[in-house]
Amino acid sequence: MSEKKISMVDIARMAEVSTATISRVLNKNGRYSPETEKRVMEIVHKYGYLPNLSAKTLRTNKSLSIGVIVPDITNEFFGKIVRSIENTVLPFGYSVFVCDSHEDEKIETLHIQNIVSKNVDGVIYIAGRADVGDIDQNFSMPVVYIDRQAEHAQFVVQSDNEYGGFLATEQLIRSGCRRILLLRDRRMLFPVRQRYEGYCKAHEKYGIPMDESLIVDSTVDYTLARDTISMILEEESLFFDGVFATNDMMALGALHALQKHHVRVPEQMKLVGFDDISLSEFCNPPITTITQDTEAMGQRAARLLLKRIQGGSVPSNNIMLPVFLNKRGTT
Amino acid sequence: MSEKKISMVDIARMAEVSTATISRVLNKNGRYSPETEKRVMEIVHKYGYLPNLSAKTLRTNKSLSIGVIVPDITNEFFGKIVRSIENTVLPFGYSVFVCDSHEDEKIETLHIQNIVSKNVDGVIYIAGRADVGDIDQNFSMPVVYIDRQAEHAQFVVQSDNEYGGFLATEQLIRSGCRRILLLRDRRMLFPVRQRYEGYCKAHEKYGIPMDESLIVDSTVDYTLARDTISMILEEESLFFDGVFATNDMMALGALHALQKHHVRVPEQMKLVGFDDISLSEFCNPPITTITQDTEAMGQRAARLLLKRIQGGSVPSNNIMLPVFLNKRGTT
DNA sequence: AACCAAAGAGTAAACGATTACTCAAATATC
DNA sequence: GATATTTGAGTAATCGTTTACTCTTTGGTT
């Protein structure tokens, strides 16, 4: 608890060499004999010496840590991405500062100041706010974005949301739906706009006329989504035979509203969600949804960031990851 | 992207004072006039100067960062604790290294070496492995544990798992159950042992005889829990009229097994879970469960750690947080 | 044999903050 | 008015690494 930590000069004294040599041995920079290496490493292991990263960072401007800014770490979807990022960077000695922004610009700014002060080598920014257009100026270091409009940034990793929207809508059409209600996150973040695009394209391809009144805005919130659908059912003025919700939380809200009004799913009404969170798998009936490869998202983003941190100029890179339809009980 | 970061000497030059004065102004350590302060702060703000934490850490041995070791960040329960920890420490300028150990000792050790090298000021360790008995020697810094056996550590935050187990069992008894199957995580981590204690105490209090064959071991895994219950139902040799699962994931597995075998819940069979993850709320019927106050767990652990980091000797402290019964559709 | 290159290792100056000393000027105390 | 204290501020060492130089020894080339 209190014994002072051992430093390079201690090791140097014991090995009877200079700190320069210790440093060269530890960093495998050559200019030392095999015998010296052996002697040094033995002492290093014997005392469990760990280099002081603050000193190293001060000297080299590399901190071996990165920041990940995430809208909500309690959300399984983001948790999976964070985990995958961590798995990818850990073997290279990197640690990650996780910064939950709560989608609040003030908190986000605080987090960013903190980690900039701490000399992070780079940042992975997972978009969750609508207004991230000018976030870039906050950083004077490599950043990789997840789920951000590619036109606004150079290094972006994202799912093929448009194709996902298409797949979801197509599945509903193939199941016989002709009037598909689109339950949409009203913040209209970039991924949602893309999913909407896919919804339109599917209508086009199958020659099904679109109807503005079938497009309903709600929030990611379960409750509001449920109540929105409930209200529509009670008013009885809008006819629809399928629902595409732009995420699973809202899909679940819709499902429960339908069940409360004794609309049988999937017999009378089909439903498709998006994201594939475990809720959609474990509810009853399990919800057909579009699966995003969170593992790959984290891994690709992390690898791209590491490459940018290590190696000079990496060409602008926009990584689009495939999604797939996960057919379950609601279609 | 490339302009060098501004340092204290730059500020000092511009304000025409020494770095010592800048330092004193920034740390509000006295020994400077109001005029000097104003002049310095104007320049600091004008250039958006942020101190270099690596240098500061090297000199002062305080890094303003802590590590949180967590068994699985994709699990909503742990995500909530992490978020609460972050919220608590952010106003004090701290950032948190989140380390997902995957309950794997090797990975955990790697993480710990990394963050020790990075001079974290303290660690919050959320137990998830069975064998954390001798983890302490890895740290030469303040640690606060969550969900660890209090006899093994000085600073522990935990829910009142025993009372939770009691409440769950009592609820089943009051709903008329007399033969309550205990579906238990076979790793028998400390919290699970406590919940089991509560299960026993409730039987005792209500004078209901316990039956060893009603205690069934499974894993946290949804699938195995489901298949375990399925098998028992198929064998038809064991009679029971209620299930207490030591966590919600297993409770959900049990629920689906029961439904598959056309056992009506809650009419023919009652069910109670533990943790209150959103899955238990949004399945059908929603599962009665024991709610843990994750918000408080994170907050109390973080506050305790900060106190230990800042102030000399904090008396040994074992914080026990209340739980409550969340009655829903399965009882 | 004379010259040169390479290998092995040391010296000391950074990196950007903090802080124990020092010191002059201003103010307080009697 | 002489002395003591407080105030405001500077000097320089320090934290633990890395690395550009330097230097000596060894071995290779012709």
UniProtKB/TrEMBL annotation, chains A, B:
Organism, scientific name: Caproiciproducens galactitolivorans
Top-level taxonomic group: Bacteria
Protein name: LacI family DNA-binding transcriptional regulator
UniProt cross-references to PROSITE patterns, sorted A to Z: HTH_LACI_1, HTH_LACI_2
A single MF term (Gene Ontology): DNA binding
Keyword terms of this UniProt record: DNA-binding, Repressor, Transcription, Transcription regulation
Chain coiled-coil ranges: none
Segments traversing the membrane: none
Annotated SMART domains: HTH_LACI
Domain HTH lacI-type: 6-60
Any Pfam family: Peripla_BP_3
InterPro entries the UniProt entry points to: HTH_LacI, LacI/GalR-like_sensor, Lambda_DNA-bd_dom_sf, Peripla_BP_I
